[in-house]
TrEMBL record, chains A, B, C:
PANTHER family: 2-IMINOBUTANOATE/2-IMINOPROPANOATE DEAMINASE RIDA (PTHR11803), 2-IMINOBUTANOATE_2-IMINOPROPANOATE DEAMINASE (PTHR11803:SF39). It comes from Streptomyces physcomitrii. Residues 1-20 are annotated as: Disordered. This is RidA family protein. Coiled coil: none annotated. Residues 1-19 have a biased composition (Low complexity). It holds the Pfam family Ribonuc_L-PSP. Signal peptide: none annotated.
């Protein structure tokens, strides 16, 4: 059987349940839903950046990237990004942030596909993002 | 590195942010979340079909198919379809439309898996659909 | 073209529309959104376990596993689990159930990635789960 590998960036808090921040099996790498938690501090509970949408969104994308990198991947490998917002009124601003963020990433491949939907998230969280990558 | 290819059907409006309507990397093809926008008109903003569920759902499926085809794929290649509705009261009608639509597609392979959940969408949109396909 | 195979465990009710409970194409296996329906009874409509979160969650995970097994896969093959809850107040209890369930599964590989979001589901359903696996 193809081995499955999990990875947790040093900046990340331990997942709150029996799941992995990122796994790779075969040529598929999946990043779990990331939120805008600041880098983990020993002995401290996870703390979201923000509370504004800008800070949380950029921290969330940073957290997704950290998992990709820990798994030997980059944004160029990502085929799908799922963005979960809590408020349709945040769409335009999130898009501006998203565009600005990716403009600075120096991608050499076309951008990933994306789906954005509006859901409930735990109190204090405005955005969650996960990503599917294909390696090799 | 495996190259990533993006595709945009001629009927499609430009994505509202730095994402692709469809991408392929290796044998994986991902279609971004599609809504019921009518074929793009030069100089016009995206306009949803409808406003009824029937018209929007069929236009949305047409838009997903256009991305699949632009990427050299068909419904037979799709393994997962995610359907986002805004109202649990739309489930039965959406299923009728979905069944009718696929009955006319002449599939030669079994239908894809599917998850349907109820979320918020931008005003005027009743349905969003994305799809994951495996090629080769 | 790579063939697509669909599978339906004997315990499962017929899907309410033209989709498959599970499909495999190439090395990708996708399990459709499963809810906590009890094993199908001839001539009876689908009936959810429960109504409590504990019973529904465990039945839902059992149903996902049944599809994986019918497709020749196991939890060890799963790279992504998507959990849909209806209430953020259910997160802690779902995590406890999730941890307990997987502790008993005897996984030999690291756990899958996961995203949990809060959506609407049909009346009476508190949880839905789908899963993406990589075989071979």
């Amino acid at each position: 059987m193809t081995k499955k590998t999990a990875f947790t960036p040093a900046t990340h808090t331990t997942p709150p349940a029996a799941f992995s921040h990122g796994v790779r099996k075969g040529n598929i790498l999946q990043v779990a839903g990331q939120v805008g938690f600041l880098p983990a501090q020993e002995g401290q509970p996870p703390t979201p950046a923000g509370p504004d949408l800008r800070t949380q969104t950029l921290q969330t994308l940073t957290n997704v990237k950290a998992v990709l990198q820990e798994g030997g991947a980059s944004w160029d490998d990502v085929v799908m990004i799922r963005v979960y917002l809590t408020d349709t009124g945040h769409f335009a601003e999130m898009n501006d942030l998203y565009n600005g963020y990716f403009a600075e990433q120096g991608l050499t491949e076309p951008p990933a596909a994306r789906t954005t939907v509006y859901v409930g998230l735990p109190a204090g969280l405005l955005v969650e993002v996960d990503a599917l990558a294909v390696l090799g």
